[in-house]
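Collaborator request, handled under Task 6.
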Amino acid sequence: MDPKMIAAALRQEIDDRSLPPGTVLKQEDLAARFRVSRQPVRQALGHLVAEGLLVQRSDRSLAVAEPNLEATREVRAIRCLLEVEALRLSLPNLTDAQIRKAERLALDLIEEEEIAMIEELDVAFHALLYGACGNGRLLTMIDGLRREGRRSYARQPMGSSERIDYAHQHLALIDACKERDIAAAVAALQRHLMGDKNG
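Structure tokens returned to the collaborator:
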């Protein structure tokens, strides 16, 4: 099992609170659990620290981070600035086929129940809308910030008010993109990013 797979498994458990905030993660225990040496575990934990999901304690052990509301607000504000710019640059270059594909992803999101797939579809939806912006560094920055703010996917069960709101927001964004209305698309994206806890 490689570091990315280990990180993904631990990330899922942090999301669904199988590993609640404050839980200490020990390399030797994880190595035994995943049947690997400590090296891939160490790399996986490094990814999760970089994403803000784990923090180093005074005794140098790693623990699941407590949610930081101020940091979440800061990340969301920066994301909004960057993602709005990416959409503004991308929309004139998007094909009708790409917009239809984004719409299908938005519709699939409405029906999906598995947390990992909700995240995958949501990331793919936004990546598709921003992908024609022509600025790879901007997309890399957005990707990093999305990983930092990813922990609310577990709070989107089927039928929840959050899930319904996200669906309406995504579809409003798609409608504006279909009309090639940059101002309306930007406004829809701003409402989505600043009004929700995830995006």
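The cover message to the collaborator said: "The chain has two domains: 3-64, 69-195. Residues 69-195 form a domain with the Four Helix Bundle (Hemerythrin (Met), subunit A) fold (CATH 1.20.120.530). Please let us know whether this matches your experimental observations."
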